[in-house]
Specification:
Oligomer: single chain
Keywords: Coiled coil, Lipid transport, Lipid-binding, Signal, Transport
Protein name: Oxysterol-binding protein
Radius of gyration: 21 Å
CATH topology: Porin
Organism: Lithocarpus litseifolius
Largest sheet: 6 strands, antiparallel, barrel
Helix content: 10-25%
CATH class: Mainly Beta
GO biological process, one term: lipid transport
Low-confidence stretches: 1-85
Strand order of the largest sheet: 10-11-14-15-13-12
Distance between the termini: 31 Å
Pfam families: Oxysterol_BP (PF01237)
């Protein structure tokens, strides 16, 4: 049951994309509860361009001369310890990791998903899936982090016929599950994510364990892929971004793709950042069919090895341009576990820069979880996810299977 004076703010912190003209994508959504009704006020996505690079430090919510410099002066290992366990609201993006995962699926302007299903040949569909995979990668902002989702936290959003549902199925370690379906296109996505950090002196690498499944049911094809890693570097210039290798496989068509995400710079100076290279090849013969090259936050090109034809398969500006902010369609269907409601008071404090209020609100959320954990232990009960069945093995890691075949329409929708 939702409290009458509860107010929630979500989708509130800008995400910044460095495109060829330094694009800035901002999404702001506010859920507020008045009596038994939830009203919504939303600032639309804004797409800003400038010939100069964005100054993220100037955009940060904290004073440059105090907290930021204090953070950067710490030992890198200690910084990550603080970010992982003791992170105050001052360094939080006012949204949950769960919401960020969901946004990578439903925050797209072009209908990339339908292209995956409408391809005439297995190769056409495979290339569309590669394009979609690249489109899910969003920039990481150094120095701030989303909230760590609480156990059982959910995020449920619809865009057209695409319904997306996420649930935090484990807290120690943190494991997030995603199920998305499009009944019209007969497309299904199942993700299971588990992040683990590795320390390398002046940098930290966070590996995203778990696999992503994309099923094109009309064609009987299942695409299996992994995620790139997050690299956080402190010296000589602080930055964070995606790196590493991604493999996409489709057993039914016998096709594979290898993508390598890199962020190259010299002595901390801006170089050929956010580059991606890769290839599409036949699994059996290892024959390369296409070469992939570009920058995932700008444009990515694909070259046909047979005839040398080059095609742009991904334009980041087109993917995010014209986006509209989510709205609440049915106020009665908002779950108490919805991420926007769980972190409502914390986000309000951050947005108003009332850090003491945000700190107390975050402490209240965390203490409530400890209380629920103590109650379960006293009753000798194990917590069970509502929307997924979860298993874990040393060999296979975490596996999440959705309980429902199709994700129902969500009360929060992204207008087309």
């Amino acid at each position: 049951m939702l409290c009458q004076d509860q107010i929630s703010h979500a989708f509130s912190r800008p995400l910044f994309l460095s495109l060829s003209l330094s694009l800035s994508l901002s999404l702001s959504l506010s859920l507020s509860l008045t009596g038994s009704q939830i009203s919504i006020s939303a600032a639309s996505f804004s797409l800003l361009s400038s010939h100069n690079s964005l100054n993220l430090m100037a955009l940060a919510p904290w004073p440059r001369s105090t907290s930021w410099h204090w953070l950067c002066s710490l030992n890198p290992t200690l910084v990550i310890f603080l970010l992982s366990f003791l992170l105050p609201p001052l360094f939080n993006v006012p949204k949950s990791h769960l919401q960020c995962f969901g946004e990578s699926v439903y925050c797209v302007a072009s209908d990339i998903m339908s292209r995956c299903n409408s391809g005439e040949s297995p190769l056409d569909r495979f290339i569309a899936v590669v394009t979609w995979s690249i489109s899910t990668v969003r920039p990481v902002i150094f120095g701030v982090a989303p909230y760590n989702p609480i156990l059982g936290e959910t995020h449920h959003v619809s865009r057209g016929n695409l319904n997306v549902l996420l649930e935090q199925v484990s807290h120690h370690p943190p494991v997030s599950a995603l199920h998305a379906t499009d009944e019209g296109e007969h497309v299904e996505m199942i993700w299971c994510h588990h992040l683990t950090p590795k320390f390398y002196g002046t940098s930290v690498e966070a590996e995203m364990h778990g696999k992503r499944l994309l099923k094109l049911q009309n064609h009987g094809e299942t695409y299996v892929m992994n995620s790139p890693k997050v690299l956080i570097r402190f010296l000589p210039f602080p930055w964070a971004d995606w790196v590493g290798n991604v493999r996409i496989q489709c057993q039914e068509s016998g096709l594979e793709a290898e993508l390598c995400y890199r962020n190259t710079s010299f002595l901390g100076r801006r170089g050929n950042q956010r580059s991606i290279k890769g290839k599409v090849f036949e699994s059996s013969s290892l024959k390369t069919l296409y070469e992939i090259d570009g920058q995932w936050d700008r444009t990515v090109r694909m070259k046909n090895i047979n005839n040398g034809k080059v095609t742009v398969i991904h334009n980041a500006k087109e993917v995010i341009s014209g986006l509209r902010a989510p709205i609440v369609k049915d106020t009665r269907e908002i779950w108490a576990s919805e991420s926007a409601l769980v972190w409502s008071d914390v986000s309000r404090g951050i947005l108003s820069k009332n850090w003491e209020k945000a700190k107390e609100a975050k402490k209240a959320v965390e203490e409530k979880q400890r209380e629920l954990q103590r109650e379960r232990e006293s009753r000798e009960e194990n917590w069970v996810p509502k929307h997924f069945t979860v298993s874990h093995s040393k060999e296979g890691g975490w596996e999440c299977s959705p309980i429902q075949k199709w994700v129902p329409e969500a009360p929060i929708i992204v207008p087309l």
